[in-house]
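Narrative of accomplishments. A recurring question from our advisory board has been how the design workflow behaves on a single, concrete structure rather than in aggregate. To address it, we present the structure tokens for one chain from the evaluation set, followed by the sequence designed for it. No filtering or post-editing was applied between the two.
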């Protein structure tokens, strides 16, 4: 076994602490990665605060440098800059995997952390660590024209919003709403703008919309203003809801045009809506989750072409608990990234 250091939650009601962990010896198709930067995802916080599996090492959107490769690896060499997301394996044979949607693998994909390795049955430990070992097929080349810290969140937040935007053919002539301007939302805005859509941001306060137009927003609507929401009724082709807090979907369904779609991504709990708001106008309520290998590569290619990255605040890894505390307060604009070389 290989050993490395990682920020680990050992038990409930404890902070993450730097401890030694084990990684598997390299299999023929494995890549060993020196982790350089790891994003702090809202789902990390959810698992840290509400999970029940210990020890827990979070972190599932990261960049790094290849330090070793297995005997059958052909796509990477030692020294390559790479990126990895929240899925590190799948069955590869089910209908979902066969069409490049490994994120919906019918036997469930192997998660970067909090999952179970398909070969040895060991729990997966994440990338709040100095090293990660991953199967070659779920490792991606880091675009050479993009900064590594700002690429890390693309590997989870980025592909999570990218796939529905492409699935519902967001582009020129489409009026698209984005609910929330956090880690997911600000990337949804950047992507929708670069795809050529007219972008409407729904936010809970005008202050949160400050600077949004620099990201590509055309209109800002304060969602707590009932009159402003009513004025947008029947106007949008597609809405991507990235808000994580519980909220009523009804006002956003009413903002859709005939045959419009509301795609809910951010909510981690139950949702509520008036069924009539869905019925009137033949509207659709949909969702999506993460992305497959094909979509992830497509997203990275698009980002390289349009020079799109996340807006990040980089913190030393040793300040991980401070980053988590600030994320609980929504005190970040728009994504924390840990420098894993600063322990």
């Amino acid at each position: 076994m290989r050993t490395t250091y990682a920020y680990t939650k050992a038990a409930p009601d404890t902070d993450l602490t730097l401890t030694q962990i084990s990684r598997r010896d390299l299999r023929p198709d494995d890549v060993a990665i020196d982790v350089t930067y790891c994003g702090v995802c809202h789902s990390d916080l959810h698992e840290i605060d509400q999970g029940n599996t210990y020890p827990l090492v979070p972190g599932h959107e990261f960049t790094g440098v290849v330090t070793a490769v297995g005997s059958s690896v052909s796509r990477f060499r030692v020294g390559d800059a790479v990126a990895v997301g929240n899925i590190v394996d799948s069955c590869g044979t089910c209908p979902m995997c066969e069409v490049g949607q490994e994120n919906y693998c019918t036997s469930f994909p192997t998660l970067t952390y909090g999952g179970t390795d398909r070969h040895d049955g060991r729990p997966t430990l994440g990338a709040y660590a100095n090293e990660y070992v991953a199967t070659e097929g779920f490792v991606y080349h880091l675009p050479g024209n993009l900064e590594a810290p700002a690429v890390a969140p693309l590997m989870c937040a980025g592909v999570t919003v990218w796939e529905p935007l492409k699935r519902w053919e967001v582009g020129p002539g489409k009026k698209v709403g984005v609910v929330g301007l956090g880690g997911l939302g600000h990337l949804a805005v950047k992507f929708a703008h670069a795809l050529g859509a007219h972008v409407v941001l729904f936010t809970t306060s005008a202050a949160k919309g400050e600077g949004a137009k620099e990201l590509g927003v055309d209109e800002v609507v304060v969602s707590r203003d009932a009159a402003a929401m009513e004025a947008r009724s029947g106007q949008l082709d597609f809405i991507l809801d990235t808000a994580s807090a519980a909220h009523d979907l009804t006002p956003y369904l009413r903002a859709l045009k005939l045959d419009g779609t509301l795609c809910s991504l951010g909510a981690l709990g139950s949702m509520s809506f008036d069924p009539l708001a869905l019925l009137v106008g033949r509207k659709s309520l949909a969702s999506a989750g993460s992305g497959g290998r094909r979509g992830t590569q497509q997203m990275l290619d698009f980002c390289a072409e349009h020079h799109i990255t996340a807006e990040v605040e980089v913190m030393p890894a040793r300040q991980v608990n401070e980053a988590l505390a600030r994320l609980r307060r929504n005190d970040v604009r728009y994504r924390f990234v840990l420098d894993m070389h600063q322990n």
